[in-house]
Write a structure and sequence with these properties.
Strand order of the largest sheet: 4-13-12-11-10-7-6-5
Radius of gyration: 22 Å
EC number: 1.-.-.-
Distance between the termini: 57 Å
Domain FMN hydroxy acid dehydrogenase: 27-413
Number of strands: 14
Strand content: 5-15%
Helix content: 40-55%
Pfam families: FMN_dh (PF01070)
Shape: globular
Protein name: Alpha-hydroxy acid oxidase
Cofactor: FMN
Length: 414
């Protein structure tokens, strides 16, 4: 092998050194290549009780694991020489159009994960042109989220942001009605009624961590804070963590949820919600043909196939596997949203190819939020959008409708 001295003229084009930036958060998030990288950053920067509340599930966490296994077992079939120049990710859903085939799922206690909480999530969603769903157990009010969503939506796109509201039916029906009326007044056009939470799931990580709202300071939490100073600084120097629908005293999650949710929720209650809600209504937590039919007969416009991310009934059906049964009973014209377990763009494509019209992200969004507030959520959306686009291009799908029409997917349970 002959050697020679390197030529400066050949080296010069290779020596492209970027200027060091002062925004360390942006640099950190920019190095994240996927949602798992954001999860790693989140775990490093968030106290264990908050991180485990997001990362964990109910019981032995079998449903959560099986959900991920189902996505991993699904094959996406490429189509060669297809001549598709681009992939259009715009997706019609709930009477509007989302710029991407996914939106942000409702999550509770969100400002416990990061001080920016729903503000960061709603702003990132409005900027991306996708729906943001506020939870009944959210830490920002309907009106506050509406203000953020409208402001960012108008700045970026010249239209208000799309926002949905998720409702748990309380024991106090009047308070439920008050929330419904406030949601209508604040421009929340779609209501997601969650029906799989008559009682709280047995989330063992939260029990072991002694998670309370607000968190109690102990020697353990002080030591945890010592290497996560930014989270604690934000927590202690921003407005107190409160929930309009909950007690402001320190209680464990089981007590809070037990005092709020109604285990006597029935199909008649769903019919009552339908009678007082003027917008589109989706029932969230449907996993069987029987519950599909009951929900539609009660007046639902659409369905969210969801096992609550494995956070309620452990050993519940996997949402992705239940999708075919729900679609067969609902028919082709009912809008179906797939929720639970989505962490990659390929997961989104698999759900759409198996019959979903739209998807929701929960943990993926919160990993981004914990990793870097609104910037982290924007990074999560960016990563999932690009992964979705690449998968669609490789499959020869020019649009989301192509994915459903061609059904280029294999799943071992079908």
């Amino acid at each position: 092998m002959r050697r020679q001295f390197p030529r400066i003229s050949e080296l010069r084009p290779l020596m492209q050194f970027g200027r060091p930036g002062l925004d360390r958060r942006a640099a950190r998030l920019g190095r994240a290549a996927d949602i798992d990288d954001l999860r790693t950053i989140a775990q490093r920067r968030t106290p264990r009780p908050a991180f485990d509340y997001v990362d964990g599930a109910a019981g032995q966490e079998l449903t959560a694991r099986r959900t991920r296994e189902a996505f991993a077992a699904t094959e996406l079939l490429p189509r060669i020489l297809h001549g598709t120049a681009a992939a259009d990710l715009n997706t019609p859903i709930a009477g509007g159009t989302s710029a991407l085939p996914f939106g942000i799922a409702p999550t509770g206690f969100t400002r416990f994960m990061h001080a920016e909480g729903e503000d960061g999530g709603a702003a990132a969603a409005a900027a991306a042109g996708i729906p943001f769903t506020l939870s009944t157990m959210g830490t920002r009010s309907l009106e506050q989220v509406a203000e953020v969503s409208d402001t960012v939506g108008m700045e970026r796109h010249g239209v208000p942001g799309t926002r949905w509201f998720q409702l748990y039916l309380w024991k106090d029906r009047q308070r439920s009605l008050d929330l419904i009326e406030r949601a209508t007044a604040a421009g929340f056009g779609t209501l997601l009624v969650t029906v799989d939470t008559p009682v709280a799931g047995n989330r063992l990580r939260d029990v072991r961590n002694g998670m309370t709202i607000p968190p109690r300071l102990s020697l353990k939490t002080v030591l945890d804070a010592s290497h996560r100073p930014e989270w604690w600084f934000n927590f202690l120097t921003t407005d107190p963590l409160t929930f309009a629908s909950l007690s402001t005293s320190a209680q464990d999650l089981q007590t809070i949820i037990g005092s709020m949710f109604d285990p006597t929720l029935s199909i008649q209650d769903l019919e009552w919600i339908r009678s007082v809600w003027p917008g589109r209504l989706f029932v969230k937590g449907v996993l069987t043909a029987e519950d599909t039919r009951r929900s539609l007969d009660a007046g639902a416009d659409g369905l969210v196939v969801s096992n609550h991310g494995g956070r309620q009934l452990d050993r519940a059906p996997v949402s992705l596997k239940a999708l075919a049964e729900v679609r067969a009973e609902a028919g082709p014209d009912v809008e179906i949203i797939l929720d639970s377990g989505i962490l990659t763009g390929s997961d989104i494509v698999a759900a759409l190819a198996l019959g979903a019209d739209f998807t929701l992200i929960g943990r993926a969004y919160l990993y981004g939020l914990m990793a870097g507030g609104r910037q982290g959520v924007e990074r999560a959306i960016e990563l999932l959008a690009e992964e979705t686009r690449v998968a669609m291009m490789l499959m020869g799908a020019a649009s989301v409708a192509d994915l459903r029409r061609e059904g280029r997917v294999r799943a071992p349970w079908l």
